[in-house]
Amino acid sequence: MMSCIFKHIREWLPVLAVAAVAAVLAGCRQQPLAPEPTANVFETVVPEEERGFMADSLDTEMRLQMEKEAVMQRVRDIYGVVRDEFLRRGSSVENELLDKAYCSESWNKLLMAVRYKEHLTGTLFFEVNHWSMMTDTDLVTFEEFELKDIYVEGPHKTATVAFTVYGYDTWAPAQIDLVYENGKWMIDNFHNLKYMLDVRERMWYYLQNDMM
Fold it and tell me: Which among 75, 28, 105 has a CA at the least distance from the CA of 185?
């Protein structure tokens, strides 16, 4: 009798084993293992008190980069118009129109004072065109623009851009100072670096003295 029972058990063992494995696998599918939590590297490495500072710094850098791009685009646009005017009209270009369109209020007020003294005294201040930096303005181009300095913190934004003026058979390194005024970057001064000429400074000298 016992041998018969053991015989039946041996016959059913493979079937029972397969059924047990199938049950285990089914249980695994129904209860997937939860992924192990991973630590936030940023939170682990950077203390909480420094995260706000880093975010502000990144935001400041982005704003500064946008201001730099805005200044350079503004200067290229201005001198694109100036170049076209000189090509179209040569020495007959009316600088005062360019000054009113692209220069600061301070520059234009100083220019009016210079023009008034020229009228009273019969003298001439501008011997070299401050837009082209040359006496011959028929063929002139402006190239190699480079942002030299920018300050955008606070209400008074300023920038300085250098470039090169090319004429028919000559060239001159130049530089302009800009201020942010009424929502636009405006030219506030011109520098002829070839002759180390600060135009605004020379204007003041002209107004304060009898002789240039």
Answer: 75
